[in-house]
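User: We ran a pulldown and think these components assemble together. Before we commit to crystallization trials, I'd like a predicted model of the whole complex to look at. Sequences follow.
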Amino acid sequence: MAKEMLSVNNLSISFGGLRAVDEFNLTINEGELYGLIGPNGAGKTTVFNLLTGVYKPDVGIIKLDGKDITGQPTIAINKEGIARTFQNIRLFSDMSVLDNVKVGLHNRFEYSTLSAVLRLPKYFKVEKEMNEKAMELLKVFDLDKEADLKASQLPYGKQRKLEIARALATDPKLLLLDEPAAGMNPNETKELMETISFIRKNFNLTILLIEHDMKLVSGICERLTVLNFGRVLCEGPTSEVLNNPEVITAYLGE
Amino acid sequence: MSFLTNIINGISLGSVYAIIALGYTMVYGIAKMLNFAHGDIIMVGAYAVFLITSALGFNPLVTVLIAMFLCTFLGITIERIAYKPLRNAGSPLAVLITAIGVSYLLQNLALILFGADAKVFKSVISLPPVKLFGGQITITGETLVTIILCIIIMTALTIFVGKTKAGQAMLAVSEDKGAASLMGINVNATIALTFAIGSALAAVAGVLLCSSYPSLTPYTGSMPGIKAFVAAVFGGIGSIPGAFIGGIILGILETLAKAYISTQLSDAIVFAALIIVLLVKPTGILGKKIMEKV
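Assistant: Here's a predicted model for the assembly, 548 residues in total across the polymer chains.
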């Protein structure tokens, strides 16, 4: 029996009268690549916001690697090991590509402000380590040549990649990708699928992703959960779920 | 030669505006709020120095450091009690109005504690005046120290924001609080640090201001505070070099207007210049153009 990386039990949240997420359950094993799909407005991004602490659930329990993280603030959850990307890219667009990744590295490197002000050797040493680590990450995504550009100067596909690099910099156990292939052409999507497989292996990651691109979903996800109107419609191995008549109805209508 | 003297005095006054404007601009850039109580922190800093000097007679440098520490503490406390609970309030007006309230609170507290009569502030700077061109131009020690300190502070802040982890965290928070906190940045601590730096600088500005213009009342900080705000907007609010440039230009403009046009009209001229700059370049001299996607 594989170790459970994420277990979500009976999670619900309402906004006013709307039950955005209703009795949501999810179990992801360590190292798994899991897909969360569903029509627009089904509550997928709300689930991500609940998992990362942006919203506090009305009821329900979220456990990461056996530890209860329900209702924790976002920083604490990030430190426990969940990192994410955003559906609408939210890079620090005026900062350089390298600095974006270094923000992600923030909590993994320490030097006192005093040593920075006095420019002590410790400051230079740690800054050098941070730069090296950040460049290493950028290389994985083939972004090392653009390190000094502003994030906003990158083409769209590369911005998506940089978001993943920045999330990885926080050293997560569980990576949440919110529509990583949105707006990408088939070639970029194919490349992205390879990158996702690569980082999962090389960074010992468990990955949960939201995606509408069924080629990507069926290509790399091992299991899926389908969300519809905030409720789990069905879950199981990818091929089974995608052939489920109920799922097809939810997507295409009667 | 008197023109040159005026320019130098203008740069000195502008340096004080610039130091105050840095506090405005950093807080605006990072917490996205206008801290209208910022000017009154200057007054608190100046009173602290005045009281410590007259009661305890410490070394000026020690006195200023204590004042900076007090103002830092005050700035963080104000942020914590008055602004932080409103940070996620629906309207940004709530925190703006609170800031105006804090400003009046500080002024009136000072009025109760220290009275309305002007105190004569003894300059903490004991540098002798410098004479140039065979005595044709005299630069006072205060002027010199103010300009030099402003340049040091500007350089240090630019390095701090651009090259240190804490500075990067500030930039990240200023762009996107939500994303920053999801990347593990402590947004509250970062905003508190911004207030701390701004308030410490306000204390320095207060001391420099009162060393050059030695009359101290509970309202001492309010006009320079507003002018520094103008300087920050002038240079492009949110931008550190913008605050510096805006402050210097404003100081020179005000001094020249006083010298050559009219003392009474100088403030009107300064604010008219702001209006003209904003008509031509609404984001200020170094302000970023905000493109909205439609």
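The CA atoms of residues 193 and 216 of chain A lie 7 Å apart. That may be worth checking against your pulldown data before setting up trials.

User: Thanks, that helps.
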